[in-house]
Design goal:
Elements (H helix, E strand, L loop, with lengths): L8 H8 L7 H19 L10 E5 L6 E7 L6 E4 L9 E3 L5 E4 L5 E5 L2 E4 L2 E6 L16 E5 L8 H16 L7 E4 L3 E4 L6 H7 L8
Antiparallel strand pairs: 1-9, 2-8, 3-4, 3-9, 5-8, 6-7, 10-11
Helix pairs in contact: 2-3, 3-4
């Protein structure tokens, strides 16, 4: 499974009762498409970047900033440009200068003895411990180096991907937007995201679906 796919090809083949490799390319395409549809609907991604990446932010407040999902605190570095010269000269210390929200992120899963949690999405300056402040007057004031996204795909997202990828894969058998057989009749093929998958991902959306 590619790191940005939300279900495994073998899992989907087992889900639809398929053996052999003749449909592997079609299945991969369906999984990729379903995964990106989920990203678009939820306004976030559910995979973790393979390496740390730098992101820059223009704060609007002195003590708080909302950021994209930070998957874990490993290798997290937060720096400020305090002189407006493009150099991020001040490094903030976690739990001394700032803390991350949510304070107790929900657990996603446990695998191989490792506990995985939902990501962090807010930095809050500890004003009682630190004199550091975000500066809204300085462009790109904040530089954050982190692993971004989710440390593990949530079970609900995986199941939603299975449902939607199956739907997309089956579409090849319904070129005129219908499906069925003589025994069950022919029905209209949905032209939208799978409604059951939508219910599964709704709680993970950053905006109301």
């Amino acid at each position: 499974m590619a790191h940005d796919q939300y279900c495994d090809k073998d899992d989907l083949k087992a889900y639809v009762g398929l053996t052999g490799s003749g449909q592997d390319n079609n299945i991969d395409n369906a999984i990729n498409a379903a995964s990106r549809e989920i990203d678009q609907l939820c306004k976030r991604v559910f995979f973790e970047t393979e390496t740390t990446e730098d992101k820059y932010f223009n704060p609007t407040e002195a003590l708080r900033i909302v950021v994209p999902d930070i998957s874990k605190t490993t290798s997290l570095v937060v720096k400020l440009d305090t002189t407006d010269d493009g150099t991020h000269d001040t490094t903030l210390v976690k739990d001394t200068d700032f803390y991350l929200n949510p304070i107790n992120p929900p657990q996603i899963a446990t695998a191989g003895g490792t506990i995985y949690y939902e990501p962090y999405n807010e930095l809050q300056i500890l004003s009682t411990r630190s004199s550091e402040r975000f500066d809204p007057t300085i462009p790109k004031n904040i530089k954050i180096t982190a692993f971004w996204g989710f440390s593990r795909v949530p079970d609900a997202i995986k199941q939603a991907c299975l449902l939607q990828a199956t739907r997309l894969w089956k579409r090849k058998d319904s070129p005129f937007s219908t499906y069925g057989n003589p025994a069950t009749g022919t029905g209209e093929l949905f032209n939208r995201f799978d409604p059951d998958a939508l219910k599964l991902i709704k709680g993970y959306a950053k905006k109301t679906l």
